[in-house]
Amino acid sequence: MTQARKAYALIGAGPMGLAAAKVLKEQGIPFQGFELHSDVGGLWDIDAPRSTMYESAHLISSKSMTEFADFPMGDDVAEYPSHRQMRDYFRAFADHFGLRDHYRFNAEVIDASPLGAPGDGWRLTWRDDQGTHSGEFAGVLIANGTLSEPNMPDFPGKFDGELIHASQYRYPSQFDGKRVLVVGAGNSGCDIAVDAIHHAAQCDLSMRRGYYFVPKYVFGKPADTLGGMIRLPMWLKRRIDGMILRWFVGDPQKYGFPKPDYKLYESHPVVNSLVLYHAGHGDLRIRPDIDRIEGRTVHFKDGSASDYDMILAATGYKLHYPFIDPNLLNWQGDAPHLYLNAMHPERDDLFVLGMIEATGLGWQGRHEQAEMVARYIKGLQSGCPVAAALKAEKQKDYQRATGGMQYLNLPRMAYYVDKATYRKAVTDWIARFRKARA
Predict the structure, then answer these.
(1) Residues near 410 by Cβ (< 8 Å), separated by ≥ 6?
(2) Residue pLDDT, tens place only, 120-178
(3) Whole-angstrom Cα distance, residue 308 to residue 58?
(4) In this structure, are residues 124 and 349 in contact, taking their beta carbons and an 8 Å threshold?
(5) ∠ CA 279-280-284 to the nearest 5 degrees?
(6) Where are the beta strands (DSSP E) in 223-347?
(7) DSSP assignment of 59-111
């Protein structure tokens, strides 16, 4: 390895990229960061080129369950922070840990290619206002996020009105006076539908399947702060949490919502009580899946139909790493197959950070993932036996850390893990690395 290739390339300065930059710096691993936007924060900066934020967006988890453990949010930050408060938090995080100087901003990575066999280094190509550039690096850490490439469905028929994806939504005034159909009832879809209710002439919500709805507050406290002190078997946790939901949410089916065809926690719940409130008040009509579209008329699978001026597809996002050959990521099916969602089974110079979802994981869970990877890189360099053990473990047959949970077979769930199972595996490796260095 030549001197010029000793540094690693880190792609992205969102929360995952910043966590990686922090632990790389702490471990003394040289790196060069690349960020498309002019500042840190990733999609949480609504002004970023590929941000998918909208003005009313807030965290769906409470700040105490989301923040980095060594950089808590201040008392002036709301319990469920807005996207602007989150942007400011990540900027403060970067300043506090001295991370900005490690980044090239306004730099779009357009290609990452290995120079030869694993260990021979990588060539990274990027462009900025000065033109196109390239450089050689020891390895690549990809942390460009999972929520920037819209998953736009192919609706049967042709719609003559305005058709947009949720990623194109910014302001409620976009709905003024329009008959609106929101397709998809995940967290963003429900948030946006609530916005539309107050501005649109009419708002309907089309749902392919039912969801479990969770209130933001239970007994006056953020719902995600309750429980967790005792790890219960899943059958008992489902029974207890299901009972609590019935107390605080009731039966969404009486408002027209379809009944979920899966068990609680087999998909991400919707943290939104207002959508139930407005459905119960008749402000929002719940419609089934779309059968076909003719002009401005949408026909639903129950035989009903209605006319709309706008369809907003809140149908999620696809994993998107356009600058690298998917085969290099061990991509299989809907997602790369990586040990603990981060580590390539055969390469020690390529890592994907942040390709992970789990209820309640928070930024600290992602920070732990980055720390495990950074300690692994450092351990390989120093000949640490724990790194050798981790190298052997990640080469075994792929197993996702689901904790036995049968998640829905959907693209968005292809990289979903069980929080407790995942964090235990990651923190166990971190503890072994720390002990080896003691």
Answers:
(1) 267
(2) 999 999 999 999 999 999 999 999 999 999 999 999 999 999 999 999 999 999 999 99
(3) 28
(4) no
(5) 20
(6) 270-271, 285-287, 290-295, 297-300, 305-307, 310-313, 317-318, 331-332, 335-336
(7) -SS-GGGTSBTTBPPPTTS-SS-BHHHHHHHHHHHHHHTT-GGGEESS-EEEE
Place of tokens 């040990």: 339
Average pLDDT over the chain, rounded to whole?
Answer: 95
Amino acid letter, 151: N
Claim: this prediction has a pTM higher than 0.85? yes
Is residue 424 left, alpha or beta, with left meaning phi > 0 and alpha meaning psi from -120 to 50?
alpha
Burial letters for 87-104: b for 16+ Cβ neighbours within 10 Å, e otherwise?
bbbbbebbeebebbebbe
Give the amino acid at 46.
I
Tokens of 334: 């809907």
For residues 288 and 423, what is the distance between their CA atoms, to the nearest angstrom? 37
CB atoms < 10 A from the CB of 262, how many?
Answer: 14
d(CA 163, CA 181) in angstroms, rounded, equals 10
pLDDT digits (tens, 9 = 90+) for 381-414: 999 999 999 999 999 999 999 999 999 999 999 9
Please state, in angstroms and rounded to a whole number, the distance separating the CA atoms of residues 293 and 336.
35
The amino acid sitting at 165 is H
- Judge whether 18 and 144 are in contact, CB under 8 Å: no
Residue 365 has pLDDT above 70, yes or no: yes
Cβ-proximal residues to 281 (8 Å cutoff; 6+ apart), any chain: none
Tokens 């089934």, located at residue: 288
